[in-house]
Amino acid sequence: MNSEPDPITVYGATGYTGRLVAAELASRGVPFIVSGRNQEKLEALADSFGDDLRPEVRAVANSDGRGLRELFSRSSAVITCAGPFSLHGEPVIAAAVEVGTPYLDTTGEQDFIRRAFEHYGPLAVKAGSPVIPAMGFDYVPGDMLASLTAAGLPEGEQVDKVRLGYHAPFQPSQGTMRSGIEMIKGGDVEWRERALRPAPQSVGRPDFDFGGALGIQKMMHYPSAEHITVPEHLSPRTVETGLTVSSFAPNALSQAVMPTVARGLGIAMRTPLRNLMSKAISALPEGAEADARTAENFVIGCEVSSARHTAKGTLTGTDVYGLTAGLIVEGAIRASRGEVSGTGALAPATAFDPQDFLSGFERFGLVWEVSS
Prior knowledge:
372 residues; alpha/beta; Rossmann fold; Dihydrodipicolinate Reductase, domain 2; 2 domains; 7-stranded parallel beta sheet; 16 helices
């Protein structure tokens, strides 16, 4: 009887994030398969690991539902990094759910995350498998920090409002920029008065006090997944999120014009200019080198309020792409062992115990603290 565990499949393995995920799996000695559309690129990636660590290669187009189902049926978990997910992701999640294999992805696209919860979640419950979207820097740290911060409220206090602020100056990959094009078109939602409602499309958001050296920062709108994930485990009345303007605009002049630029881009991405922007992205570097990634530090702040008390949490770290690979690989390994709390679509903080899960990422400088 074969006692070897089924491999973890990485779909979209030849992209920037996919290669980091494959390298993380190889470093941990986990059997895995690299998959995607391009056989030649997949073979080159597999060869880069040497004979001892070389993964199996399976070229399957995302339009080949039968091929995806056959591949995923002999996988212990599926990690997909093939974005933009709103354009390319649905056949992959559909195939994984149909065969009942645990599914995780690296998407940061709110509309895709919402579809994972609303459409594929109930199907995964019937299949008895978990679906965990947004299992990278977008949005594991924020979702889990909200849970950890809420635990800082006095016992018996009902969560009323959750505020999350991101300060994340980093060089985006081509894939992130393409996903960003899909994200800034508008039409996103936010959790307000205990329901998902259309988000105001004004760029500005209330200032956020991160404390410490970062202090009070001007914030801007972005379509965050925590509006979908946090209500799954905290049941707040309202969730507010924001991204520091200084994440993209380091000086006062650029910060002053950033709202206008962002508003104009949002309008432009609803026109044929979106296709031109996608082509222009192809001429840019695929992503930052390792040294540049580790030089970029992020800060996530959280405020959780009840009617009478407020708890504050802060989480800091570095290398958002390396951390994404580490987070999703850890999640996939646990899912492949059946160590997930529940079935169906799950928020990161629901699928895994936040304190236990985050404690294994010291190499990314991951540190958090919570105060009442």
